[in-house]
Amino acid sequence: MKLNPLADRVVLKMVEAEETTAGGLILAGNAKEKPSVAEVISVGPGGTVDGKEVQMIVKPGDKVITSKYSGTEIKVDGVEYTIVRQSDILAVVE
Fold this sequence. Notes:
Oligomer: single chain
Structural class: mainly beta
Number of strands: 8
Shape: globular
Strand order of the largest sheet: 6-7-1-2-5-8
Helix content: under 10%
Number of helices: 0
């Protein structure tokens, strides 16, 4: 199944949280923070949203940072995705 977002929405796949700290300590499952870095899987066409013209800036393959609790989480074919509005993306990671 393929997800095709509408309007200014973006489908993201969260990047796995680090298993170890910079000092080499292994983190327990409950000590990991929710990752905020994600990979863009697909992008909507943009257009007029709430009376304003929206041009899509991100593209599939980009790594982005999102707001911590933004979006809607879904599971498709056993893979977890998050659908957010482009305005919920804070930065593109290069």
